[in-house]
Design goal:
CATH class: Alpha Beta
Radius of gyration: 13 Å
Oligomer: single chain
Order of helices and strands: EEEHEHEE
Distance between the termini: 19 Å
CATH topology: 60s Ribosomal Protein L30, Chain: A
Structural class: alpha+beta
CATH superfamily: RutC-like
Largest sheet: 6 strands, mixed
Helix content: 10-25%
Number of domains: 1
Number of strands: 6
Length: 125
């Protein structure tokens, strides 16, 4: 098992790794809309989701993978009424690639953000 850490995504705000690589898979921790410097991206679900994907891309790249290798995504959303807007940004970042996905509305997320996404990806580009 290898721990993944990059300065191109926000540092963990708790006792966990940005991602772990094990047996040919990359498991990311949930990414929220923080910049690599730790500033919160406030604003619309679209703005927050773009930052989450920037973070996921950076962590996956550090681990030697990419969004094209994602096999499963788990999306936590604060308000299911924003599902369509989130879906548009999600589709933009994944393109024709459509990994398995779960989407769950939750009562609260860290730092009261609107979205958090974690993924499982194959190692290798």
């Amino acid at each position: 098992m290898n721990y993944v850490a990059t300065e191109n995504a926000p540092q963990a705000i708790g006792p966990y790794a940005q991602a772990v690589s094990v047996n040919g898979f990359i498991y990311t921790s949930g990414q929220i809309p923080l910049t690599p410097e730790g500033s919160l991206v406030e604003g619309s679900i679209e703005e927050q989701t773009h930052q989450v994907f920037a973070n996921l891309k950076a962590v996956l790249e550090e681990a030697g993978s990419s969004l094209d290798k994602v096999v499963k995504a788990t999306v936590f959303i604060k308000d299911m009424n924003e599902f369509a807007a989130l879906n548009d940004i999600y589709a933009h970042h994944f393109g024709a690639h459509t990994p398995a996905r779960s989407t769950v509305e939750v009562a609260r997320l860290p730092k009261d953000v609107k979205v958090e996404i974690e993924v499982i990806a194959l190692a290798g580009k």
